[in-house]
Amino acid sequence: MLYLMCTHPPNTSFNSWPNSPSNPSPPIKDLRYAYQIHTQLIKRRMAQHNPSITQILTHCIELDPHGSMHYAQLLFNQMLNPDLLIFNLMIRGYSKSSIPQRSLELFLQMLNHGLMPNNYTYPFLFKASTASSAQQEGQAIHAHMLKVGLSDDAFVKSNLINMYCSFGLVEKASQIFDKMTERSDIVVWTSMVSGYAKCGQIERARRVFDEMPQRDVVAWSAMVTGYVQGGHFMEGLELFASMQVTKFRPNEALLASVLTACSHLGALKQGEWIHSHIWKSNLGLNPIVGTALVDMYAKCGKIEKAVEVFEEISEKTLVSWTVMIKGLAMHGLAKECLSLLSRMEKEGIEPDGITFVGVLCACGHGGLIVEGRDCFRKMTQVHHITPGLDHFACMVDLLGRAGLFEEAEELIEGMPMAPDSAIWGALLNACRIHRNVELGERVGRELMKLGTQDGGHFVLLSNMYASFNRWADVSRVRKSMVIDGVQRAPGCSYIEVHGVLHEFVAGDRVHKDIEKINATLENVFREIGFLGYALDTREVLLGVDEEEKRKSLRQHSEKLALAFGLIRTNPKEPIYIVKTLRVCHDCHNFMMLVSLAYERTIVMRDRNRFHHFREGLCSCKGYW
Ligand code: ZN
Ligand code: ZN
After folding, report:
1. Does the N-terminal or the C-terminal CB of the chain have fewer CB atoms within 10 Å?
2. Ligand 2 centroid vs 578 CA: distance in angstroms?
3. What is the DSSP-derived secondary structure letter of residue 439?
4. Which of 169, 165, 168, 177 shows the shortest CA–CA distance to 207?
5. Has residue 167 got a pLDDT over 60?
6. Residue 430 Cα to ligand 1 middle (Å)
7. Of 197, 193, 185, 150, which Cα lies nearest the Cα of 6?
8. pLDDT computed for residue 22 by the predictor
């Protein structure tokens, strides 16, 4: 949500309101006023008076463009000789409407009228080409502009750079930027920063940002958002921290980006700081920032606080409701999810497909079979939402976990599209839980056929064979992993202590306190050993010998983070950990026993959901 507009478009206001000397510039707050003025113009036979029409058009465009372009077009159609200004207004209006391609049609119409475009025409043509993904047209218009000889305006250039980057032609954008002799305008630099970031060239984006002769809040926002959207959350937070020493105050778009980074990393303290900043600056909870806050609290483990903020948002959007539902689902609060869905329906907010992914996922985590089936039915029959792969995956997971294999298979067979690896993965997981090796093998073959690259699926399959002592099959699966080059994405864990975020990878050697951490970890293993803990090596992958397996398992990133938490937090204080992958059985068991031995609440988020470990138990009841 980046605001990349720059210098203002031409001043199009006229003071020639017909017959209104007592009120030289009457405000037009909605279309009704435009209608009144237009009626007056017709009565006075001034419907062809270009300056007056221009003023009405300007207001139509500045109102919600989705609602008013229709009226603007009606006015335009009645004009005998629309001038350049009027064409420019129409092109600009359509460029931000839901039918941006109309701008390009108007451009041709304009040329047919014998009018030559100027510096206020091209930027909106490039905007329209970007919005309608019209690459050929966009490039043709660029060529036209060069022919006309208009090319040195920063506003034009920044839109041109945005356009080429949106087409993925980053080198073309880069050439335009490099060739510019006059680069004092922040806007052009900012376009280049976001352009590189959008095309995944984050380091180049940062170089441009660092070279900027001066920066404004939009530039800072572009760089931070670039980091966050590219998944470089730590870097995003670090840059935001360095912005704090400048004179710039963050705008709402930037705050929402930073909150997204906090959500991913579980950086609760920093998220809370932003919340208090919003509160202190009287920014109010607009739906975007409010929803980002709800997401942050939910993903940082503070679900009650998320609910509190959700209730404070006065204008809840569909996204706000959906984020809240997904948050509740992550925390395994299935009943709460269902009641929020019915509240939403009562308040007349139409849920969409994403909302139902949240609800179905909650039913799966909560083992609510009947309710899950009902929701799936309601989604298609009442809300007329066509189920997608995500919905089918949730349902297969729900049915499979309950051991309803026939129903799950029927559902898969009846799917209008081919099942993907997430669906087969869900079924395979169910086969593992219920030790259904026959179906498991079949599902395994389907997964192999799809050429899945998800190491997790191979682990499931090989574990299933292992549990039946079918070692030849275990080794076959593992060999095929090596041949296919399947790897488990390197996971990491985050823990925030006194507002500082610490990152751990498995077998970490870089953290400055690693020796202390390892010593503490040894004590922890001894303590929980008294409670019956034994390493569970089933999920360790690939041809390492037993001793190596044990060693690597003891060094999983979440275990290191936990030990660090024990060192650096007060006794009895809850420990919050974020793990980027699904937590393994051994770490899950480890956390349960630590919560008992050390009388600590441990809140851990893994890729799928939250685990609240208390007194030796986990809130997920073994479903994850
Ligand atoms: Zn683990
Ligand atoms: Zn759990």
Report:
1. N
2. 13
3. H
4. 177
5. yes
6. 20
7. 185
8. 37
pLDDT in tens, 239-272: 999 998 888 888 888 999 999 999 999 999 999 9
**Spacing, Cα 585 to ligand 1 middle (Å):** 7
Q: 339: how many CB neighbours lie within 10 A of its CB?
A: 12
553 C-alpha to ligand 1 centroid (Å): 6
Ligand 2 centroid – CA 572 distance (Å): 20
Report the 10 Å Cβ neighbour count for 305: 19
The first and second tokens of residue 521, run together, are: 């970890």
Q: How far is CA 547 from CA 469, 537, 551, 585, in A?
A: 20, 10, 6, 18
d(CA 92, CA 102): 10
The CA 583 to ligand 2 mean position distance, Å, reads 8
What distance in angstroms lies between residue 622's CA and the mean position of ligand 1's atoms?
Answer: 15
Half-sphere exposure of 317 (CA within 13 A, CB side): 11
Ligand 1 geometric centre to CA of 175 (Å): 48
Degrees to nearest 5, angle at CA 188 with 184 and 192: 130
Long-range pairs of 69-75 with CB within 8 A, sequence gap ≥ 24: 69/93, 69/94, 69/97, 69/99, 69/102, 71/31, 71/34, 71/35, 75/38
Domain boundaries, the chain: 387-488, 492-618
Ligand nearest to the CA of 537: 1
Phi then psi for residue 567, to 5 deg, are -70, -45
- pLDDT confidence of 541, banded at 50, 70, 90? low
Q: Which ligand is nearest to the CA of 330?
A: 2
- Give the number of the ligand closest to the Cα of residue 584: 1
pTM above 0.85, yes or no: no
The SS3 of residue 136 is: helix
Q: Token digits for 267? A: 């950086």
Q: Three-class SS of residue 578?
A: strand
Which of 381, 382, 363, 379 is closest to 371 using CA atoms?
A: 363
Instruction: Output the CA 98–ligand 1 centroid distance in Å.
Output: 48
Distance 293 CA to ligand 2 centre (A): 25
Of the listed ligands, the closest to the CA of 562 is 1
Residues with CB under 5 A from ligand 2 (ion): 611, 618, 620
Q: Considering only CA atoms, which of 399, 342, 339 is closest in space to residue 369?
A: 399
Q: Which of 540, 537, 597 is nearest to 563 (CA)?
A: 597
332 C-alpha to ligand 1 centroid (Å): 21
How far apart, in Å, are the Cα atoms of 501 and each of 52, 233, 606? Answer: 59, 11, 17
Angstrom distance (rounded) from CA 408 to CA 400: 6
Q: How far apart are the CA of 166 and the centre of ligand 2, in A?
A: 42
Q: Which ligand is nearest to the CA of 560?
A: 1
The pLDDT score that the predictor gives to residue 499 is 82
pLDDT at 547: 78
Which bound ligand lies closest to the C-alpha atom of 605? 2
- Distance (Å) from CA 620 to ligand 2 centroid: 4
- Looking at residue 151, its pLDDT comes to 64
How far is it, in rounded angstroms, from Cα 609 to Cα 416? Answer: 29
Q: Please check whether residue 20 is in contact with residue 46, taking contact to mean a CB–CB distance below 8 angstroms.
A: no
Residue 195 in contact with residue 208, Cβ under 8 Å?
A: no
